[in-house]
Design goal:
Helix content: under 10%
Number of domains: 3
Distance between the termini: 39 Å
Number of helices: 0
Oligomer: single chain
Structural class: mainly beta
């Protein structure tokens, strides 16, 4: 049975001040910012120039987006190389672009969600509103009622359902706990990785435009520390190679050291320790949330 995943959804706050254009994820939660005043046409435009007064809002309810936006202005026709020339960029919530009269393409990105449309610049300011079907996704993971610390768990986000039999690359990889990922409205699945062992959970979720969806993934796993000893309670033997095998004989983890640690999903395992050309084995049962120290006696 797949471990449960908790979904909580609320209105996406309009301010994402720490949004980085190079990454769709935010390291911190959004916080409320005052609504920006409507953009005004500049008074010092030269002859032959016009202005685009741009704003963005969520597509579902029209709420203004006041942060986390990246605007790009392109020529409306490709150049000789077949590319559309980038003319201007801006990361303001409600930018004003002063441009020579003519036709342009305006593109605005809100994380991985975006929209674009052609705009004509003339004598009168062009007031343009862009609707973006984008929402936010924030994830954390727990074992039982205990939150897994940042750095021990990460998330990959894929478009569509996990049950769709297609090969695809993640939209966002190694997303940390509490980071906000801005994506187009739609269905996604999350691959949650706890540690470097086999503690992996897959969860389907739905993101709505204009809303921040909080996801809590529950892992049924525990952290296990191994040590090879000459007698019970003795000192750990150095230079020990370890392997963790499933009941079917598949290798789950290979580690080295006197006190190695590995995070394992709930289940039965066989532990193999190699030291000084000798091999020692022991069975292991992992109980969710019960971290433990396993001694393998070299005899």
């Amino acid at each position: 049975m797949r471990p449960p995943t908790t979904h909580r959804c609320r209105l996406l706050l309009p301010a994402l001040a720490l949004f980085a254009i190079s990454s769709p994820a935010l390291a911190q939660s959004p916080f409320t910012m005052p609504t920006a005043p409507p953009p005004q046409a500049p008074a010092n435009m030269k002859a032959g120039e016009g202005a685009i007064l741009a704003t963005a809002r969520y597509s579902n309810d029209g709420g203004a987006i006041n942060g986390g936006l990246h605007w790009r202005i392109y020529a409306d026709k490709p150049d000789q190389t077949g590319f559309f020339r980038l003319i201007k960029e801006d990361s303001s919530a409600q930018p004003t672009f002063v441009l020579p009269a003519g036709n342009y393409i305006v593109h605005v990105a809100f994380g991985l969600a975006s929209t674009a449309k052609p705009v004509q610049v003339g004598r009168e300011p062009a007031r343009e509103v862009f609707e973006i079907a984008g929402g936010g996704l924030r994830i954390e993971a727990r074992v039982g009622n205990v939150k897994i610390p940042t750095g021990q768990v990460s998330f990959d986000i894929y478009q569509g359902s996990q049950f769709e039999q297609i090969d695809r690359r993640p939209l966002a990889s190694s997303v940390l706990t509490g980071a906000i990922v801005l994506v187009p409205e739609g269905t996604y699945y999350i691959l949650s990785k706890y540690g470097d062992g086999n503690a992996v959970v897959r969860s389907d979720i739905r993101v709505q435009a204009g809303k921040l969806t909080d996801i809590t993934v529950t892992h049924r796993a525990a952290q296990i520390m191994f040590k090879l000893v000459s007698k019970r309670g003795g000192e750990a033997l150095a230079n020990t190679d370890w392997a963790v095998l499933s009941p079917a004989g598949d290798t789950i983890a290979e580690i080295k050291g006197a006190f190695p640690r590995v995070i394992l999903a709930e289940g039965e395992y066989k532990i193999i320790a190699r030291n000084d050309n000798k091999v020692y084995q022991q069975d292991l049962t992992v109980i969710p949330g019960v971290d433990s120290e396993i001694e393998v006696v070299a005899r």
